[in-house]
Structures are given as C-alpha cells and as structure tokens.
Amino acid sequence: MAMVEEQMEAEPVELKPTVTALTKLKKAQLAFELKKRDLDTTGLKDVLVRRLLAALTEPPAAVPAEEVLQSGSESCLRPAMLISELAAEIAELSERLKQLDSA
Length: 103
Hints:
The chain is mainly α. It contains six helices and no strands.
C-alpha cells in the first residue's frame, strides 16, 4: 500500500464531486484522498466513494467558539465571545419554543 501511495503522490488526481467521477478512481486512490482529509479509509469501494463525496460536497465544519477562545488570538476573541453568547441564547429560545409547543 505504501508504494501505491507514493505513486499517487507523484500523480495528482483532479477530483470532481460526482459519484460517476469518484467511481472511476481505484480503491487505493480513494483511500489516499480520504487519508489526506483525515477520514476513515476502511470499507468497500462504494463506502469510500460515498465518504469522499460527502467530504467534497459538505461545507467545512465550523470551529467551536471555545476553541477560538482557547487559541488566544486577540482579533478573534470578541467575535468568538459574541458567537458563544448567541449560541447560548438560541439554545434557550429553542427550549422555550418547545415548551410553548407542548403546552
């Protein structure tokens, strides 16, 4: 497998986020692309295709405000605090709405 990875590193593959395009890749290529994204590389080829397709089409996950706050970056500190406060407020309002709906 290491030899296959070395060969693939020398030959970059243009990834198109379609099932058809990804199905044309070899299983080793799919595993390599998943590994580059720190994703699970185990499973049948169809599973790898779906996993890579999801990684290519889903928007990147938001970084939790707590992580931004812990990073210590002054430029991010205030917006991160506001985001954290807003998230708490949204959760509280959502809970209130649930209570009103059930009443």
